[in-house]
Amino acid sequence: MPKVLVSDPIDQVGIDILSQVATVDVKTNLTPEQLVQIIPEYDALMIRSGSRVTKEIIDAGTQLKIIGRAGVGVDNVDVPAATRRGIVVVNSPEGNTIAAAEHALAMMLSLSRYVPDANSSVKSGQWDRKSYVGAEVYKKTLGVVGLGKIGSHVANVAKAMGMKLIAYDPFISTERADQLGCRLVELDLLLREADYITLHMPKTPETTHLIDAEALAKMKPNARIINCARGGIIDEVALAEALKNGQIAGAALDVYETEPLGESALRALGKQAILTPHLGASTAEAQVNVAIDVAEQIRDVLLGLPARSA
Ligand code: NAD
Ligand code: MLT
């Protein structure tokens, strides 16, 4: 029987699929050193965002045939190193689209109405209504950066809430943007016009620190920014400074340059900042979707069938 290592929490439905063809070991919270030590005995590795699969781990995995990421990105896997060793890397490009889009929308509304801070205030025994006068999203302009699967769903829902939509995405057509009711614009204009900005593109050399001090300086003082895409697209030091100085009105982040988030000026901010611990895909539905999607691909490869590579 082949052996599969599951090194991040995965829905049971995925374990059940893998168990049809393999012995499955679930071992979470392993250190990189522990992973290097045990990986030689496994034919497949299944992860979420918690495990970083480095070249060292891949090279130690002498039996490895496939690495499956139960999520969208494969940015925590050294794909070139895996490819050199003939190891297939697969993911679930659509399984958590709705979950991530809904988290971004929840962040936008929570940020506008200071829901997390108002909740903490009542729970701590206060009844303070003056500190939490918010803003409506109705008739405000939402700038969507990255109009792919998640960005499109956010745009559709935001449109239904009466928001005006603009978008920046160098790779999509005006026709596609028109279909979504979005005016396609340059990033500079989006930064200057939007009341809300939501980021939905991958982290690449082009998008790393795309939102830096210069970009933040172009935003309106009432603007709020949401990042449920990838850490590092926003320069966190510049963002904390812009929020502290009231240069922009708010930010909601689900992802960080380093995860888990360590010591950071962001933690000291008040109601103008909302921080969640990479929860975009954390719904029961999405976790079932991605577990099935990736477990089936791993099962197929272990059975000698062809795989769809990430
Ligand atoms: P997608 O591939 O469907 O869409 C990404 C879009 O970004 C594409 O339309 C692409 O053209 C565009 N893009 C690429 N480079 C760009 C650039 N320089 N500027 C602007 N747009 C650019 O991907 P998706 O499934 O919609 O995922 C979007 C992001 O959300 C990814 O970074 C993904 O890893 C992340 N994500 C996060 C969570 C979470 O838990 N927080 C969950 C799922 C996905
Ligand atoms: C993803 O890429 O799908 C997300 O970051 C979600 C996750 O893996 O938890």
Description of the structure:
The protein has 310 residues and is of the alpha/beta class. Helix content is 36%, strand content 15%. It has 12 helices and 12 strands. The strands form 2 sheets. Strands 8-7-6-9-10-11-12 form a 7-stranded parallel β-sheet, with helices on both faces. The protein has a 5-stranded parallel β-sheet with strand order 2-1-3-4-5. Strand 1 (3-6), helix 1 (12-19) and strand 2 (23-26) form a beta-alpha-beta unit. Helix 1 runs parallel beside helix 12 and helix 5 packs across helix 7 (149-160). The longest helix has 19 residues, at 284-302. It starts with a strand and ends in an 8-residue tail after the last helix. Residues 48-49, 71-73, 96, 278, 280-281 line the site of D-malate.
Termini separation: 26 Å
Give the helix/strand class: alpha/beta
Cα-atom radius of gyration: 21 Å
Order of helices and strands: EHEHEHEHEHHEHEHEHEHEHEEH
Compute the number of helices.
12
Q: What is the β-strand count?
A: 12
Overall spatial form: globular
Question: What's the structural blueprint in terms of helices and strands?
Answer:
Layout: E1 3-6, H1 12-19, E2 23-26, H2 32-38, E3 44-47, H3 55-60, E4 66-69, H4 79-84, E5 88-90, H5 97-113, H6 115-123, E6 141-145, H7 149-160, E7 164-168, H8 174-179, E8 183-184, H9 187-193, E9 196-199, H10 213-218, E10 224-227, H11 236-244, E11 250-253, E12 273-275, H12 284-302
The protein binds nicotinamide-adenine-dinucleotide (NAD) and D-malate (MLT).
D-malate (MLT) binds at residues 48-49, 71-73, 96, 278, 280-281.
